[in-house]
Amino acid sequence: MQFPERFSNLPPYAFPRLRSLLDSHQPGGEPLAMTIGEPRHAMPAFVADAITDAVDGFSRYPVNEGAPELLAAISAWLCRRYGVSVEEDRLVALNGTREGLYNAAMALCPESKGGKPPVVLMPNPFYQVYAVAALSVGAEPVYLPATAETGHLPDLDAIPAETLARTAIFYLCSPSNPQGAVADAGYWARLLELSERHGFRIFADECYSEIYRGDAPPGILAAAERRGSDPESVLAFHSLSKRSNLPGLRSGFAAGGRESIARLRQLRAYAGAPLPLPLQQVAALVWADEAHVEENRALYAEKYRVADEILAGIDGYQPPRAGFFQWLPVEDGEAAALKLWTETGVRVLPGAYLGRDAGGGNPGASYIRVAMVAQLDEMRRGLTQIRACLYD
Ligand SMILES: Cc1ncc(COP(=O)(O)O)c(C=O)c1O
Fold first, then answer.
1. Full-model pTM
2. Rounded CA separation 126/354 (Å)
3. Is 39 a pocket residue for ligand 1 (Cβ < 6 Å)?
């Protein structure tokens, strides 16, 4: 039997790779996982009853593009959060953002650009689905270093003109995983200007938008509206996974131009897996409620404060502006993760597993990613052990 070549160079996924690195060694203390970005704060209290109330909906096929009440709740949320007016035919409900980030490339990436295979740009390090989406549509993934020197976002002025000429899609994650960097209004404006000049789409992964300190991160929809950009050039992706501590509900959405959304909806009508109706009904209630989001943000504010205290003074340490990861500089991320595990039992992810070797090295190689999802006391213990083991 033949197998496709297009995924043959994919590295093993980060978590199996981590298991190979650590699991043949004994932990040096009580194991504490700070690896995976799975929110552990409580989900909104009303969710359980709401699912029970909606349970009859399991007897029906779900609405592919999203139930009207869900799309209305999302549209109202976008208006409250970003001051933008996005009609329901510019929205599609997703089974979490990951599948949408993938399927949007399937639906919208052209076969060629300027007579050549298209390029899909993405930050490096990055959320791994972007690269698989690019490979699936026969595009060339191009990894743009997002390092401390570039403010942990790609340097938009450093992309070669011939690359921009072939670019069909630019994935940008803001707030970013893993670094917690935020694209400000100026950054979005510059990216939109490049998109207008070179005719590429921006896929803005904004699933961490509600976990931040200080001012709320600006989003691409408002930036595009302000500039009068072509709505078809932009897709924004949002999720309840982090905002509402519901990663298992699998509810997200994409917002964009009418034609782009129509194409995404059509692809999903043929090949998609819509969210079950009762879950869509619950998701509508969750998007409509802001009180639990504020409570959740207050819990993270306390975590940021404790982390700042414990990690203060580490050479090169940059506190995250948003999201729930610490991106900590070390000499060698794999060696640091192994040392931590064998000496303390704390498990963290080597930064290299989230990046690729491109243009002279892997920009994640000298970092570890530490998730601040555990309860505060556990998180405090983990960070204190990290500090003592790797930095003192
Ligand atoms: C940057 C980023 N994008 C997208 C996702 C996907 O989240 P979900 O599919 O749960 O919405 C994640 C999940 O960890 C993420 O870190």
1. 0.97
2. 6
3. no
